[in-house]
Amino acid sequence: MAKIHVNTSINGEVVEFLCEPHETLLDVLRNDLQLTGTKEGCASGDCGACSVTVNDALVCSCLVLGVEADGAEIGTIEGVSNKDQLHVIQQKFLEHAALQCGICTPGLVVSTKKLLEENPNPTEEEARYYLAGNLCRCTGYDKIIRAVLDAAETMRGAA
Amino acid sequence: MPVVEYKVPENIDAAVSMLSNTQLSTKVMAGGTDLIIQSRAQSSDPLVVVDVKHIDSMMAAVIVDGGLNLGPSMSCAQFTARHDIKAIYPGLVEAAYLIGSTQVQGRSSIGGNLCNASPAADTIPALIANGAECVIQGPQGERIVAAEDFVTGVGQNCMAQGELLTRIQIAAPQANTSDAYLRFIPRTEMDIAVAGAAVSVTLDADGTCTAARVSIGAVATTALLVPDAAKALIGTKLDEAALAAAAAAATAASKPISDRRGTVEFRRHVVGVLTRRAAVIAAERAKEK
Ligand SMILES: Cc1cc2nc3c(=O)[nH]c(=O)nc-3n(C[C@H](O)[C@H](O)[C@H](O)COP(=O)(O)OP(=O)(O)OC[C@H]3O[C@@H](n4cnc5c(N)ncnc54)[C@H](O)[C@@H]3O)c2cc1C
Ligand code: FES
Ligand code: FES
Does the CB atom of residue A29 touch ligand 2 within 6 A? Predict the structure, then answer.
């Protein structure tokens, strides 16, 4: 099977890669580009651990083909912090102890960032619905939601 | 069926020729939220994927003379963000909003939901209740199929190899018309319908129902149009007796199966309750118009 040459942009940087037509964007990110922050939980669209943005849409990278990245702009967890300085959302997840094993965390941070871009002042219910596709087997969600709402408040104050 | 080839047509004609001139199994991909999962199932057939998301008309939705021309592959996220569409078809928008998570909505499309033809697909009852028409393009030209005739069985639709769903069109509703879609799921989010009901009603100036369409989902191999439930509403002010008759008609039309998500008895009862409630919501919305 001939590999396909893909030109894309990941976190604002031009990236080229070769991939098989059946490989998912998640496979490419983790296995070919060593961007292992994006996690695989289920590979079937159910858990959200693989959340990334493609042209500004929040999607599960396990349900996107790698070749679809051609000409697109991809955003992953690796692009969220400002080099060594954590994003407010990441800081708040730490402060509120909103993670245990951490497998769900990158997906939750990417999804929260998108949520707060669309809706800087979500109610608890809005935040819970928006993030319903990000499953966490450890925390019970309460600390996550507190971190999200605190991050929203902090970001509104800074804006 | 591992994906062995990926093709990106720039227009409808190119897509149709890619879908027709092929030895290998070839399928359209919109959001891929059904197709990519299915492509991983154990089977020896290699699959060629034709990604139609680079064709502008497949991705656009326009209001024309008060009706909807929907590019079938527009993502549910983009569709549900359209306030102009929600103002006319709130029930169809809420059905699209129920599909999966925010992430799944970022990719999934109404055309994909329809073509995939799951008995529990959320947007199909809402399309049927609104009298949607499916425009299909194939090597022999264009044809139009009513939404209630599009799905022919579990996972099966009326299209032949080489055909592409190019547009979903809904005529402008009459004055004081609105719709609603409700489903029952055991959770509050991220689940597949155990039963669903979509209702569109038209009211006259004194609140009498002059036209209605009722469709039920997840209670038969395909979503069903239920003319008897509509008849029970037409000519009434949607009083208790009319709502009870519509619910009974929906229950009578349903042919559900029992599985771990719900028994036959439960589904038959719930589809009646959902029909009644959706009719009430649709009527409230119609009054506000
Ligand atoms: C986690 C998860 C949750 C989900 N929850 C729901 C839910 O709550 N309710 C629900 O109804 N569904 C649900 N789904 C199923 C799926 O997301 C929907 O059916 C979705 O609308 C499919 O759209 P798509 O664009 O991704 O289709 P695709 O996967 O791209 O296509 C589906 C099928 O339709 C064909 N097709 C697509 N477009 C065309 C076209 N224009 N012409 C001809 N053939 C075409 C494809 O060849 C394929 O066979 C869920 C899926 C996942 C992964
Ligand atoms: S790994 Fe993609 S949703 Fe679970
Ligand atoms: S912290 Fe373990 S899955 Fe969320």
Answer: no
